[in-house]
């Protein structure tokens, strides 16, 4: 296929604006799949994606279409819409020349619509604006057209109207992709230069790399060289996605496909690396991707300590497929050996946990998530803390800094006051209000990240009856009056239950937390004391009463001293048990830190 007849594009939009449904219609319209093979969310391979109705991983597929008697290859990449998977979107954009910007005809411009548009602009992509779901009775395409023009700067005459459900406007999209999106600019006669934009691990075939060819070509038998890892391999198979893997003799300039080269170790592949020929190497590597910064951390431990190595292998396989996820070994006094894992957000953390349990069949214990803090010590040393356990003693802390985000709320204008009150209750600072139309507004606040990672999104959705959306960006660290809140169970500090809170909230959160733990931890044969402490100061206490056994039940009548002797014996036994007994803390208790505000 000549390079001038190849188009590489992706679909970007806010969550649930119809990206996967549009991808399904494009697959049907171009006869890429037969009606017998078709199912909804065709490009969403994971069960988790279909169950939740969201896209988690970007997927690639090669479409063939004919225009003016010429055959064209359209390489489509379907991307996620949730803010936590923004990194997946940026990786997809790096492999494309154009993007379909999808906006729901009833919902209008949302927070992620704006964020994804700016991402596409940063990558200098040709943007084709599309208004979807025009068949719905509540659709308002003309109002949305005005919103898009005002917020995104799109031209109304260039905006396409489609309904992926009925198939209306699909042919116009294919024509627009061919006419408006430029073909790849690469040179087929220079050394190979290809970008790895994703990879997966296959137990039988090793690591399969997904790549976009920028210059040169790649065929079976070639010796390839990875510039970042410095490893070389012999190509065994190349091909394209339709959407299943289809073998080809060669991947030419501008094409998107996969390569299998007997890569056994997942450490030999890095997403964003440049692939070239071993003997005839390219002069310079591609810029690759900016390494994502994890926003949320939590501890993941095997429920059975013998599964530690199985958990490590499972995490390594996941990190190959999702390079925005990081992990490193750590030890907890309460939970033993495990890993400190970094995520882009709370949904990202939830998805990783579910994938671990499903794909690797491991029972895990997960600690409450927290954000990364900066601490200036009294000796002027600045340290980054991603685990409350690493917080130095109070007398060594000069300044405690927390991450601040700029949050943009897109919501109906009647809920502006409600969200302002809600954001200010979470230590937010008001920045601006911008009206998209008479009925919709963008509200901007600066908030501590720790205040929004737990239940903020759910409560914001409830407050706006589901119509509000949120997007946020990290803008830096600011000094705050923060302290470490410890939990003691029977006098022993449980490191996995420690949290970092604002000083003014310590007593309220401490009381709520020990009360919540009291309901989660079952009664033992001895008294269990739960305490919340800041440094050496106890600020809250709850007591779990022991299970009582009536040891005098068999004594019917007789001397009272017999009963007293039995009760004293029981008392001594409970005292001894309390000093040597272990308190069992269930998995739910470690996550109860999240629900203390309920």
What does this entry look like structurally?
- By secondary structure, the protein is an alpha+beta fold.
- It has 5 domains: 178 residues, P-loop containing nucleotide triphosphate hydrolases (Rossmann fold, 3-Layer(aba) Sandwich); 85 residues, Beta Barrel (Elongation Factor Tu (Ef-tu), domain 3), CATH 2.40.30.10; 74 residues, Alpha-Beta Plaits; 106 residues, Alpha-Beta Plaits; 107 residues, Alpha-Beta Plaits, CATH 3.30.70.
- It is built from 14 helices and 31 strands.
- An 8-stranded antiparallel β-sheet has the order 11-10-16-7-8-15-12-13, with helices on one face. It has a 6-stranded mixed β-sheet with strand order 2-3-1-4-5-6, with helices on both faces. Strands 21, 22, 23, 24, 25 and 26 form a 6-stranded antiparallel β-sheet that branches.
- The longest helix has 21 residues.
- The radius of gyration is 29 Å and the shape is globular.
- About 4% of the residues have low confidence.
> What is the assigned CATH homologous superfamily of the largest domain?
P-loop containing nucleotide triphosphate hydrolases
- Poorly predicted segments: 41-46, 48-57, 577-581
Please identify the top-level CATH class of the largest domain: Alpha Beta
Q: Which band does the percent of strand residues land in?
A: 25-35%
Helix content: 25-40%
Count of all domains: 5
The rounded distance between the terminal residues' Cα atoms is 59 Å
Mean pLDDT across the residues is 80
CATH fold call of the largest domain: Rossmann fold
- Major beta sheet summary: 8 strands, antiparallel
Q: Tally of extended strands?
A: 31
Based on secondary structure, the structural category is alpha+beta
Strand order of the largest sheet: 11-10-16-7-8-15-12-13
Radius of gyration: 29 Å
């Amino acid at each position: 296929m000549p390079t001038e007849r190849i188009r590489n594009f992706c679909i970007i939009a806010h969550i649930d604006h119809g990206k996967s449904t549009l991808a399904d219609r494009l697959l049907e319209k171009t006869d890429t799949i037969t009606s017998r093979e078709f199912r909804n969310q065709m490009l969403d391979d994971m069960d988790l994606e279909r169950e939740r109705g969201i896209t988690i991983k970007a997927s690639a597929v090669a479409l063939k279409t004919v225009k003016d008697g010429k055959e064209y290859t359209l390489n489509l990449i379907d991307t996620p819409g949730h803010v936590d998977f923004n990194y997946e979107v940026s990786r997809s954009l790096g492999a494309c020349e154009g993007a379909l910007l999808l906006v729901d005809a009833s919902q209008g411009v949302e927070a992620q619509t704006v964020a994804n548009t700016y991402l596409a602009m940063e990558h200098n992509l040709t943007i084709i604006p599309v208004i979807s779901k025009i068949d719905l009775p509540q659709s308002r395409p003309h109002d949305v057209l005005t919103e898009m023009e005002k917020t995104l700067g799109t031209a109304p005459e260039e905006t396409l109207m489609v309904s992926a459900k009925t198939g209306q406007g699909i042919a116009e999209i294919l024509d627009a992709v061919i006419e408006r999106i430029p073909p790849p600019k690469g040179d087929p006669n220079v050394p190979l230069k290809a970008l790895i934009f994703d990879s997966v691990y296959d137990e039988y075939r090793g690591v399969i790399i997904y790549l976009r060819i920028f210059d040169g070509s790649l065929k079976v038998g070639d010796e390839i060289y990875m510039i970042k890892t410095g490893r070389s391999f012999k190509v065994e198979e190349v091909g394209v996605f339709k959407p299943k893997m289809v073998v080809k003799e060669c991947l030419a300039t501008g094409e998107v496909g996969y390569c299998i080269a007997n890569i056994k170790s997942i450490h030999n592949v890095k997403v964003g690396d440049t692939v070239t020929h071993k003997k005839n190497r390219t002069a310079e590597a591609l810029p690759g991707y900016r390494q994502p910064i994890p926003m949320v951390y939590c501890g993941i431990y095997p429920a059975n300590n013998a599964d530690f190595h199985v958990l490590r292998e499972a995490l390594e396989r996941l990190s190959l497929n999702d390079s925005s996820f990081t992990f490193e070994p750590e030890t907890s006094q309460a939970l033993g050996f495990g890993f400190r894992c970094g995520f882009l957000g709370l949904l990202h953390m939830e998805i990783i946990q579910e994938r671990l349990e499903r794909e690797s069949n491991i029972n895990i214990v997960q600690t409450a998530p927290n954000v990364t803090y900066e601490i200036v010590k009294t000796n002027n040393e600045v340290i980054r803390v991603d685990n409350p356990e690493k917080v130095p003693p109070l007398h060594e802390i000069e300044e405690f800094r927390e991450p601040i985000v700029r949050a943009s709320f897109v919501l109906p204008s009647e809920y502006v006051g409600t969200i302002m009150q809600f954001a200010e209750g979470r230590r937010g600072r008001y920045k601006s209000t911008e009206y998209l139309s008479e009925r919709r507004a963008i509200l901007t606040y600066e908030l501590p990240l720790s205040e929004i990672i737990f239940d903020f999104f759910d409560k914001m959705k409830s407050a706006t009856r589901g119509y509000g959306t949120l997007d946020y960006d990290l803008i830096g660290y600011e000094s705050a009056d923060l302290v470490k809140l410890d939990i003691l169970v029977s006098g022993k500090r449980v490191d996995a239950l420690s949290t970092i809170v604002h000083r003014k909230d310590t007593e309220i959160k401490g009381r709520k937390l020990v009360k919540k733990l009291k309901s989660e931890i079952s009664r033992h044969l001895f008294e269990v004391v739960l305490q919340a402490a800041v440094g050496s100061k106890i600020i809250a206490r709850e007591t779990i009463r022991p299970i009582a056994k009536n040891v005098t039940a068999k004594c019917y009548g007789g001397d009272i001293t017999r009963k007293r002797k039995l009760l004293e014996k029981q008392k001594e036994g409970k005292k001894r048990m309390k000093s040597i007994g272990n308190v069992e803390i269930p998995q739910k208790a470690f996550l109860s830190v999240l629900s203390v505000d309920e």
